Amino acid sequence: MSQLLLAIVIGGAFGAVLDRVGATNPNWIGRMLSLTNLALMKTILLAIGTGAVLMFAGQMLGLVDVGHMSVKAAYAGVFIGGLLLGAGWAASGFCPGTGVCAAAAGRKDAIFFIAGGLLGAAAYMVTYPAWKASGLLDNIAGGKVTIGSVPGSKFEGLMAFSGDLVGLALGLVFIVIAFALPDRIGRGDESGSSASMHGAKT
Amino acid sequence: MILNWKIGGLLLGLVFFLAVLLVKPIGVSTQFVILDGIIGNAFNAELVVKTEEGYTSSNAYLAKSKGKYAKNIANPMNYSFIFVLAMMVGAFISSMARGGLAKGESTMPALWRANFGDSAATRYLVAFLGGFVVLYGARLAGGCTSGHMMSGMMQSALSGYIFAAGAFLAAVPVARFMYKKEA
Predict the structure, then answer these.
(1) Is B105 in Cβ contact with A33 (below 8 Å)?
(2) Residue B77 burial by CB count (10 A; 0-12/13-18/19+): exposed, middle or buried?
């Protein structure tokens, strides 16, 4: 029962924060992915960095249960699936989590996204045996691995370094990139004339 | 307006951390499969069946990993499914608290309208096709933006980096091609 209470509290907080950072708004997704406004990209990078630093520091101090880590397997299909998700994400402006939140906030196009998503997931369920037979779901580089080897975790490390320190360092790198990233990349600042054309909007 | 990225990023990171601290990393896209299974099971009670060890399914995907998907379809009141429903409630309350959607946004985003015009049917069709490709891809990859990209890279999972590389490699060219006009 307490599990369900946690689901309600953490899930509710996640939905609310996604709404407040603009992730449930396809305009902000489109601006981020066309690189014309990277505010949401900075938010995401800082979030990954913050989460990593808190988790790995907590694990090193013994305050966070390493057993709660859950690492997904690496296989060629992860990359192919990533390409597909990326294309659909850019075209629709939604990903699975933000799509359901956007529908809840009253976006009708998000309801069509969810309907398409349910059909897409069903299509995968039906075609799964073919993917399985293709070998593209076979583990690469050890499958469920982290970059370093995290002490006490049930996952192997790709490299022999201390996974705690690697995780902490990567977290800091994400935070640095979040700060270093410009507000936008390309277009508008490519040449003088287009800069003045877009100047009013930026 | 949206939160400043420094505050928003800290809050979002805190939520991802709390999830790992208290339960497990956040993930969403599996629940599309679970809902499909619940719907499918309503029409065909043979889809998910109880066995001596747990649950299994006539569908190979639902039966994989010792029937963990089949089990969740049979018991929808589980953490991950309730989590997604709670996300919707949280987003709804947050959106209402700041006055709801801007005018015209409920049909299509302004960025879409600036580039492709006013047709709701076109927007709905692309959102539907986009949803199909997104969830097909997410299930092939074994996770989505939340589970692979954010939770995965946060844990320094190799799969998270592979997924993020694929996602942005496709998403950025598609977005730059589609959204030439800014809004």
Answers:
(1) no
(2) exposed
Question: Per-residue pLDDT averaged across A54-61, rounded?
Answer: 97
Rounded Cα–Cα distance for residues B92 and A169 (Å) = 36
Q: What is the tally of helices (H) and strands (E) in chain A?
A: 8, 2
The total of structural domains in chain B comes to 1
pLDDT band at A197 (very low <50, low <70, confident <90, very high): very low
Least confident of A109-123, A185-199, B41-55: A185-199
Give the model's pLDDT for residue A1.
58
Q: Would you call A122 and B40 a contact, using CB atoms and an 8 Å cutoff?
A: yes
Residue numbers of the domain that contains B66 = 28-100
Rounded Cα distance between A81 and B147, Å, is: 13
Report yes or no for ipTM above 0.85: yes
Q: Does B48 touch chain A (CB under 8 A)?
A: no
pLDDT digits (tens, 9 = 90+) for A108-149: 999 999 999 999 999 999 999 999 999 999 999 999 999 999
What are the boundaries of each domain within chain A?
Answer: 2-187
Secondary structure of chain A: what % helix, strand, coil (to 5)?
A: 65, 5, 30
Q: Is B102 exposed, middle or buried (0-12, 13-18, 19+ CB in 10 A)?
A: exposed
Question: Measuring CA to CA, how many Å separate A128 from each of A90, A98, A137, B25?
Answer: 25, 25, 10, 25
Across the A:B interface, residue pairs with CB atoms under 8 Å apart total 519
Contact state of A115 with B163 under an 8 Å Cβ cutoff: no
H or E element that contains B140: helix B120-141
> Residue A188: what pLDDT?
61
Range of weakest confidence among A5-9, B43-47, B152-156: B43-47
B75 assigned to some structural domain = yes
Cα separation, A131 vs A49, in Å, equals 33
Residue A79: the pLDDT is 98
> Does the beta-carbon distance from B88 to A198 stay under 8 Å?
no
Residue type, A165: L
Domain contains B182? no
B166 within a domain of the structure (yes/no):
no
Report yes or no on B151 lying in a domain: no
As a whole number of angstroms, the distance between CA B10 and CA B21 comes to: 16
